[in-house]
Amino acid sequence: MSTENEGAAVPSAAGPQGSPAPQDAERPARANPPAEPAESPAAPAAPAPPAAAPAVAPDGGTAQMPAVPPAPPAGAGAQQQGAPAAPQAPAGGPWYNAAGAPRQPYGAPAYGDASGNGPLVPLASWGAPEPPRRRRGGLVAAVLAAALVAGAAGGGIGYWAADRSDTSSTTVSASGDPKLASRTPGSVADIAGKALPSVVTIEAQSSGGEGGTGTGFVYDTQGHILTNNHVVASAADGGKLSVTFSDGKQYDAEVIGRAQGYDVAVIKLKNPSGAKLNPLPLGDSDKAAVGDATVAIGAPFGLSGTVTTGIVSAKKRPVASSDGGGSNASYMSALQTDASINPGNSGGPLLNAQGAVIGINSAIQSANNGGGLPGAQGQSGSIGLGFAIPINQAKNVAEQLIRTGKPVYPVIEATVNMRDAGGGARIVSNGSGGSPAVTPGGPADKAGLKPGDVIVKLGDTKVDSGPTLISEIWTHKPGTKVSVTYIRDGKQKTTEITLGERTGDK
After folding, report:
1. Is the N or C terminus of the chain more exposed, i.e. has fewer CB atoms within 10 Å?
2. DSSP code of 181?
3. Is 230 a catalytic residue?
4. What is the CA radius of gyration of the chain?
5. Of these residues, 40, 113, 224, 230, which one is catalytic?
6. Rounded CA gap, 194 and 198, in Å?
7. Is 207 a catalytic site residue?
């Protein structure tokens, strides 16, 4: 059903860094978007590059190390040599960008980047302590042993105290960290604890009995759940949908509306009575910055309530993805993250360090090396290249679907080549079925564009291919005026175009 369940590789446009173009059908596709499956990108012959990463819809953090505790005064008492060290308190500490936590320098990147930036700083790794050397003073030996054990623990010890009421011995004890009881505000544990009750696992089943598992999250108090189209597509026509919350309660659901091109869908609980409907707060995806911390929640390979962390690796990454079943592709100008996303994570929230949703996890770049769990053979797993639909765009689509049940797309009404990449989006000579490549009276025609023109820029965004052009057009609303830079007869020109409108998926 879903890409996350199918695990098929999907075509996408080559990105600004010169990614290979998707291997599409010989016919060009419309930038309206493509009107039929044959015009959608097909499976790439080779792994896609960073800029226009082909994707398969799935479908770190530092602790501050405490200083070694100080030794008590020499006159505090004595302890027998060889006395056992005091027990340790559990390790802990604030997340690297938790509220009030000091900034930490980045460590070495976890993976290279065509998109990526440095990852979170890994936890410090402390080696095994040396055994304490024997000394004449029992007190010194006891304190030294305790200090070494604290160092090996690597954190989480609030303070050490020496009981000096008994001059014949010294008792060393560790106190628990009071922060562990309620978790530090802004820590991963705090974010996950608040978000998990609002994240659901979705089971979709077609009328023929086929289906799969995905994720969604509570959108409002009326029982609407936001997810990916490819998660629920198999159950859209006469199938069955069920939603399970983190407390184990299960509810039947129905599709309210879905947008195949955006890969966004809204479903609703049929009987939300008794359901704890606490909508997740929505952030501003436009304000997300490369390097910002991310938290992804979902049900990878059916493992509900799985939490992973990472950073925003890149923004405005043009991605084309499909469910692996031959349907039309979806296009997005995605947020890229290295938080682990696998089949089953689709439709789940990508959260920022404040616990607000900045994206819907939708696709991954895969090495096609198969899944790692029983029953997951043939499914691709995370290699640290995940893509999420920016929540600002997803919110607009969700509101359209709730109001009318149908999506609305901005269009330029010109057919562009979806196969070539690297030089821009070329308007072809003839459209699909012999129709004009530039619709007479349409937005592109009114802007003066003609067959053979190569669009190289839309607004401030460089365009290297047809899929990149579509994903960028779809970040705008119908009626928006944007500048278009194109090349004709070797000369670069600029014009302004007012985006048209198309309702529904073709």
Report:
1. C
2. H
3. yes
4. 28
5. 230
6. 8
7. no
